[in-house]
Design a protein that fits this description.
Layout lengths: L1 H23 L6 H23 L4 H28 L4 H9 L7 H37 L5 H4 L2 H15 L5 H11 L2 H15 L5 H26 L3 H11 L5 H9 L4 H26 L1
Helix pairs in contact: 1-5, 1-9, 1-13, 2-7, 2-8, 2-9, 3-4, 3-5, 3-10, 3-11, 4-5, 5-11, 10-11, 10-13, 12-13
Length: 291
């Protein structure tokens, strides 16, 4: 069991660590360009190609999408009063606690744990999170938000089209699918390297508070994911994917939003770093329970 967990987590953390040391050596890394390349090109290609090729009952996609929406709503309802009781700013902490790193970390963990089937299901959770993050998440941080923000994200269209092709059992020419698959293969390494570089460049504030909030995040998100999977009746693999995706560390995109809208970005940076460090123990523990 320990060898299996190590084989799943080691590639994820080693690539992120490579990105971290790359940045610490002050080697060139255009973070804006790589992030844009990932989110607008390689990740959409990966999502579409994986969903089209996935041999999964379309009902499974529907069920995990519904479960994701229910879980994110439940997490919001659970976290908001906790932050209020703790005297913490909702604008600063609510979105980071809700929206974890389902892309950079969640997708590769799901892939290594459950194979192509797990990756396809994890992409549904990732797509739901991305849509909510670019709409509701922006509103939480800035006090304003427009649904049109989500419509600007190519990964949303890749998810919709990929799901449609999967449900309708449509195919594209093999040469085109090969090209999309090849483009998608760079997504996961790029995202992990970007995560490491981003963490190395963050300015971290209040480690103690970040640790307490991160622990609360993991407890609430894991508990909600487990309960939601039981209520919705997700099968074993889908339930495991949902729990893994919701138990991911705080996403770096939360820091970007906090910096953009001047909402205590150092505090959010602390959450990103501390929750990512804690994930070195949380993710293996979750895998030990699931596998």
């Amino acid at each position: 069991m320990l060898a299996q967990i190590f084989s799943i987590t080691a590639p994820v953390f080693l690539l992120a660590l490579a990105g971290y040391f790359w940045a610490r050596m002050r080697a060139p890394f255009d973070l804006d360009f790589v992030t844009r390349l990932s989110l607008t090109f390689s990740v959409p290609c990966l999502i579409f190609a994986t969903l089209v090729r996935a041999e999964i009952d379309p009902a499974a996609f529907r069920d995990i999408a519904v479960a994701s929406l229910v879980a994110y709503a439940a997490i919001t309802l659970a976290v908001a009063p906790i932050l209020w009781l703790g005297g913490l700013s909702q604008r600063t902490f609510l979105a980071p606690v809700i929206f974890g790193n389902t892309g950079n970390v969640g997708l590769p963990v799901a892939l290594f744990a459950y194979g192509e089937q797990g990756l396809a299901l994890a992409m549904v959770v990732f797509a739901v999170m991305a849509i909510l993050s670019f709409t509701v998440g922006i509103y939480m941080v800035a006090g304003v938000g427009r649904p049109s923000e989500a419509l600007k994200q190519p990964l949303v269209y890749a998810s919709i089209l990929g799901g449609l092709f999967a449900v309708m059992d449509w195919d594209l020419p093999e040469w085109l699918m090969s090209a999309l698959g090849l483009a998608g293969q760079i997504a996961i390494p790029l995202m992990l390297l970007t995560l490491g570089v981003s963490i190395a460049r963050l300015r971290v504030g209040d480690i103690g508070r970040a640790a307490l909030v991160s622990i609360a995040k993991y407890a609430v998100c894991a508990g909600v994911a487990f309960a939601t999977a039981r209520v919705v009746g997700l099968p074993e693999v889908a339930a495991g994917v949902l729990l893994l995706q919701l138990a991911m560390p705080v996403a770096v995109t939360n820091y970007m939003l906090a910096a953009r809208y001047k909402c205590d970005p150092d505090a959010v940076a602390g959450l990103v770093v501390v929750s990512t460090v804690l994930s070195l123990g949380v993710i293996p523990a979750a895998l030990a329970l699931l596998l």
